[in-house]
Amino acid sequence: MLEKVPGPRLEMPPTYDWDDLVQADRVHRTLYTDPNIFALEMTHIFGGTWVYLAHESQIPNNNDFVTAKLGLRPLIVTRDANGKIRALYNRCTHRGTTLCRWDKGNTKSFQCPYHGWNFLNTGQLRGVPWPDGYTADIRDPKFNLAQLERVESYRGFIFGTLNPDMPPLIEWLGPITKPIDDWLDRNPGGKVVVCEANRLKYKGNWKLAYDNSSDGYHVIYSHRSLIETENRFNDPTGKEKGMAFYKGSPDKLEMYVAYTGNGHHFKDKRPNIEKRAGGLWAIESLHPGMEYYAEKLRKRLGPRADAALDLAGSEPVNINVFPNLSLLGNHIQVFEPVSVSETNAVWYGTRVEDDGTWDQETIDDINALRMRTQEGFPNLGEVDDITNFEQIQVGLGCLEDEWVYMNRGFGMPERFRTDEQGVIYGPATDEVFMREYIKEWKRLMQADPNLIVRRDP
Amino acid sequence: MNAPVKHDPARSSYYLGDDLYQEIVDGYADWQNDALLVEDRNVTAHFERLLYREARLLDRGLYEEWLKVFAPEFVYWVPGTADGGDPRREIAVTFDDRRRTEDRIFRFRTGYAWSQSPPSRTVHLIGNVEVFRTARERVMMVRSNFSISEFWSGATRTLTGSYGHRFIEIGGQWLIRCKRVDLIECDQCLRNPSIVL
C-alpha cells in the first residue's frame, strides 16, 4: 500500500491574470523577474509535469546514486538493491536535514549526519538511536523518506513528477521521441554514457535558456565571434565550418524548427549536412587532436573511418524537452533553476560505448576526439549566450517597459505546416517554438495540479 | 618528444594523440613527491620568475608574448574533477591545444565576443612555488597556488586553485609543455568561464 500525503502548498498563492501576462506574440517581463511566479513554477512546472532528473548511465549498478534537483527540492536518485530506480527526497523526516551531501556514490542506506536516523535506499526508516524514547511507532510509514510518486525512463533518460495525473512518460514525450531516437541510434547500439560535465551558471531566469534552446535567430549574431573563429583559416573557395550555414538566408535552407507538443521542440540542422558517412565530420570545426585521430582512424579503418568520425562530430540537432532537458550536439544539457534570477546550466558530456560495431581501440579514439569536440561550444559559444541572458535580466529591470517579444513569424501562416501528429514546422529562425511552449507553460500555471509524494511502507 | 615539428601546431593538431595524452596522464600522477623536490634556490628562483612573467603577460593581455612561454606543442588543461580525471574519457572544463588557445585569443579580438566585451581585468597572484624533478632530465614539474581576481560586469570575483606547470627544456629554454589549472571549484557551475586562467 502506498500512503499518499498532501503535496506542498504556498501559504498565500498570488493571483495572476495569466492571459494578460502571456499573449499571442509577447510575454510580460514579470515571467522572468517576479519571485512569486518563480515560487509557483517550482510546483506547477517543476512538480506538475515530467521533469528530467538524471541519466541511467550515472547509476549503472544497484545501490548507485546521484544527487539531483526537482526544482529546488534536493533529491537522491538511486537504483535500490532490487534495481528499481527511485527519486528520494534528500531530507531527513526527523528534522529536515539533507541526508546525503555527496554528488554520487554507492550505498544501501543513508544515515542522517545530525541525529543518526538511518534510511534504506528504498526510503524506509531502518532505525533511530534509542528508539525507546518514542511513543510514536517509528515503523509508521510517515517516518519513511518522501519520494516521487512517479519515476519513469525513456531509453536511459530518467524523469519524475509529483503529479499522479500525468500520462505515461512516453505518451507525454510524444513525437519528440523521434529525434531522441535518432540522437541515440547514431551509434548502432544507441548507448551513451555520461562522463562529467561543462558546468555553467548565469544570473538570469531559467526560461531565458529554454527560450534560447531552439532559437535559430540568435546564432549569427550572438555567436558571431565563434563563427568567425571557426572559419579563420578557410580559403574563400573552401567549405565553411561549424555554424556558418546560418550566414546568408538561413530561412531558405532545408533546416527547420519543429514544435512537437507539451512544451517540447527541436531545431533540425541535419538537412544542411551532406547525406553520406563523413558528412557531419566534414563541417566539424577545428578541435584539439582532430588531425591525429582522423589520420589514425583512416589508416586503421579505411572507408569505415568516416562513420566513426561522425560519432565524434557534434550532432546538428537541438532537442528540447520541457522544462529542463536539452540534447545539444553530444551534450545532455540540464537547466536547474536556482532563484528567479539565477540558473545552473549543466552540460553533461557523453561518450559512446562499444556495442560490437567497433573495436575498443576505435571507441577509445572516437571518445578522445569526442571529448574535445564537446568542450568547444561551452568555451567559445555558450559564454556569449549566457552573457546575453544576464544582460536580458538587467534590461528587464526597466519596470515600465513591460513586454518581451517572441513574434518572429507571427501572423505568417505561409511559413508553417502542421503534420498529422500536430507537429508544427517552421523556418529555422522562427520563434514559433517559443510562442507554443509558453502556451504549455501558461496551461500548467493555470492548472491546479493534485501533487503528491509517496512514502513506501 | 624532441623530434622536429612535422606540422605547424598553430594550424593543425597532429601532436595531440595517444603519446601526448599518455605523457600528460602519467606526468600528473604522483609528481608532487618530496623526494623529487628541488632545493637549489637558483633553480627554483628561475621557475618562479617564469611563472610571474606568465602571470604578468596574462594580466596585461599581451597574448602574443604569453604564447611564447609555451612549447610549440602544448596543452592548457582545466580539469572538471578534483582528481583531474582522464581527459580521453571525461569532459574537462577546458583541454586546449595551441590552435584552440589561439582560437580563444582570436575570438577575444573579433569585437563580437560578448562574454569579454568589455573585457575582464585580472590580477594573478602566485605563491607556494615548488619545483619537482621528473624521470626525464629535461622535464620539470612546478606546483604553485594561485588566486585570480577578475573584475567583470561590475563586480570582482576570485578564482582560486593550484597550477601544475610541466616545463620542457628546448634549445636551452624552459618552455611550458602543459599548464594544468586545478580550480578548487572545478566541479561546480562556473559563471562566464571565458578568460585564460
TrEMBL record, chain B:
UniProt key word Oxidoreductase: yes
Known InterPro entries for this protein?
NTF2-like_dom_sf (IPR032710), Rng_hydr_dOase-bsu (IPR000391)
What's a Pfam family this protein contains?
Answer: Ring_hydroxyl_B
MF GO annotations: dioxygenase activity
Top-level lineage group:
Bacteria
What is one GO biological process annotated to this record?
3-phenylpropionate catabolic process
Signal peptide positions are none
Q: List the keywords (alphabetical).
A: Dioxygenase, Oxidoreductase
Keyword Oxidoreductase included in the entry's annotation: yes
Which family, according to UniProt? Belongs to the bacterial ring-hydroxylating dioxygenase beta subunit family.
The protein depicted here goes by the name Aromatic-ring-hydroxylating dioxygenase
Q: What is the lineage of its organism?
A: Bacteria, Pseudomonadati, Pseudomonadota, Alphaproteobacteria, Hyphomicrobiales
